[in-house]
Amino acid sequence: MNPKEDFKYALECKPPHNSIPLWELEFHLWEKFSGKDFYVGEEFLKLNAAEKDLAVNRNAEIIALVSEKLHFSAITIPGSYGEIAPGI
User: Fold this and answer.
1) pLDDT tens-digit profile of 18-76?
2) Which candidate, 15, 22, 52, 55, has a CA 20 to 30 Å from the CA of 43?
């Protein structure tokens, strides 16, 4: 059984066969664990259209990198980019 199947089992309230799935509902440490700028909230709103497009793609790469590094079984995409990021 792979991590995806283990996570599906956990969502169905069944015991996973391998490892316990890890899922961070509100992960805020993308920059800390990637060492790269992660743009949301006010910082994202200040970007022009082309910069926003690059930022969304860069953020997706950071999310994938950090999720793999921390062995997340699933990820939750940060809240709306147009809203103020948590903690600000």
Assistant:
1) 777 777 777 888 899 999 999 888 888 889 999 999 999 999 999 999 988 988 888 87
2) 22
Total domains in the chain come to 1
- Assess contact for 70 and 22: CB atoms under 8 A: yes
Answer whether residue 43 is part of any domain.
yes
In a domain, 52, yes or no: yes
Q: Yes or no: say if 30 and 38 are a contact pair by the CB < 8 Å rule.
A: yes
Amino acid at 49: A
Q: How far apart are CA 76 and CA 35, in angstroms?
A: 20
* Dist. CA 61–CA 18, nearest whole Å: 27
